[in-house]
């Protein structure tokens, strides 16, 4: 299913179209940081973008630091409906975040930094939703869209896959392209908890191996190395020109296949990297370099065609 590319660094308040509308199985991810001055912020899934009269809002996700809660609601026929409140403040002022809104047949399921936060039952059918709005004291880095996949997806996915090509929406965004391999790119600002790296492409039909490296200068903080000749994904770290002990165990088996497309999502947490492949959580890798800000370079090399990178 073709989807639009992300919105990058949109000015807040922001309102932009969801091309093709919202559908069961889609995931919308919002990444950024909460400003220290933040009192409240909100993400709205809207039925249009009209101010007077105000468009219906199928899902109003409203973080209130002044009340230490998250309020969920809908707005229909000119009025707010019954609130649902969660008194568990998972956001922190001055800290980054990732919010993922998973749309299923009965509800919106919200994950914050990879952890299940809440569920909001549908009051307005998702087919009416065609706009996303964000307001409040936020620095938004990206708004990205994942569609229903052609491969199996866990009933409790950890990360979404990356967007696919679609005509430009309004706002700043960048389309997927074919990247040269070997590929290298700076990770501006280094890594930090909730920072994500997304790599998408297609494994060559006769592939033997490829790797993704997260580098800190000459050191390799995280080496992710799928080996089709061994049917394993090797993980390791290289410090002082010496490789450490390998990690090879795959709880669910090898998820990558020769000749098939893939998306690898690496999310940095405080103590480890969480890795998902094609929407399914695969493993964790504990940090061996602890100064995450030093990890500022991405390398991709091997037997693949590279089509999408977010770093």
Summarize the structure.
By secondary structure, the chain is mostly beta strands. The protein contains no helices and 24 strands.
Report on the architecture of this protein.
The protein has no helices and 24 strands. Strands 2, 4, 5, 6, 7, 8 and 12 form a seven-stranded antiparallel sheet that branches. Strands 1-13-3-9-10-11 form a six-stranded antiparallel sheet, with no helix packed on it. It has 311 residues and is an all-beta fold. A hairpin with a 2-residue loop joins strand 10 and strand 11. The protein has strands at residues 7-8, 14-17, 27-34, 40-46, 57-64, 69-76, 79-80, 84-86, 96-103, 107-112, 115-121, 131-136, 138-146, 183-186, 196-203, 210-216, 219-227, 232-239, 242-243, 261-268, 272-277, 280-286, 297-302, 304-310.
Name a few traits of the molecule:
7-stranded antiparallel β-sheet, 311 residues, mainly beta, 6-stranded antiparallel β-sheet
Give me the secondary-structure topology.
Layout: E1 7-8, E2 14-17, E3 27-34, E4 40-46, E5 57-64, E6 69-76, E7 79-80, E8 84-86, E9 96-103, E10 107-112, E11 115-121, E12 131-136, E13 138-146, E14 183-186, E15 196-203, E16 210-216, E17 219-227, E18 232-239, E19 242-243, E20 261-268, E21 272-277, E22 280-286, E23 297-302, E24 304-310
Antiparallel strand pairs: 1-13, 2-12, 3-9, 3-13, 4-5, 4-12, 5-6, 6-7, 6-8, 9-10, 10-11, 14-23, 15-20, 15-24, 16-17, 16-23, 17-18, 18-19, 20-21, 21-22
